[in-house]
Amino acid sequence: MVRVGDPLPQAFYERPATEVAPDLIGKLLVQDPDSTSGTLCAGRIVEVEAYCGDGDPAAHSRSGPTARNASMFGPPGRLYVYLIYGMHWCANAVCAPAGAGDAVLLRALEPVHGAGAMAARRSRTGAAVGERNLCSGPGKLTQAFGIDGAHDGADLTTDGGLSIRDDGWTAADMVSTTRIGISRGTDAPWRWYVAGNTHVSRR
User: Fold this and answer.
1) Does residue 1 surpass a pLDDT of 60?
2) Which residue ranges form the domains of the chain, and what is each CATH number?
3) How far apart are CA 13 and CA 29, in angstroms?
4) Staple 60 to which of 4, 8, 69, 202, CB 3.0 to 4.6 Å?
C-alpha cells in the first residue's frame, strides 16, 4: 500500500500564492482509484508557478472574475482548470482568501504510483509515454491524471477524487527562477522546482 498522507487542509492554501507555491514542492497530487483505471495515481510535485491576482499582469484574474476564471476567486484549496491553445488543460491550486484570485500552476510531477495508468491515458493522445516524459509539463500531467474542465472547482482538501497530500518528503535543494511560457510579468521570480530533478519541464 503506497503511503500518501492526508489531504492538505484549507488553511494551508489560505496564504498568498508566492508562499504556498514553494511549500507545494514535494507534496503529492493524488487521484483515488476510479472506474476507468481502478488504480491509485500519485505524482510528486516538482515544479510550480505562482500567479497573484490583480497585481500580476500574467494572472488570469488580473481583470476580475469571468466565466472562465471564476474558480480562481473561489475558496482556497479548490482546483482551477483551464484550457490553453485549445487543446491542453492546466491545473492550479487556488490560494489566498476567497476573492483574491491567487493560484499555483502545477507544472510538473514525478510519478510515484500508478505510472502504468498514467501512461495509458497519455498514449490515447499519441504522446510519448516514457516515465520521464509522463508528467513533465502542465498539459502532460493533466493528461496523465485525466484532469479536464469537469474538474474545475474540485475540492483538493478532501478524500476521494483529486487531492494534494503530504507524505513527509522534502527536497534537498530547490531552485527559484522567473516564470516561463508567458509574455507579461516575466521578471517575477515565482517559479520553483526541485534541483536536478529529471521530470521538471525546463531547467
Assistant:
1) no
2) 6-194 (3.10.300.10)
3) 15
4) 69
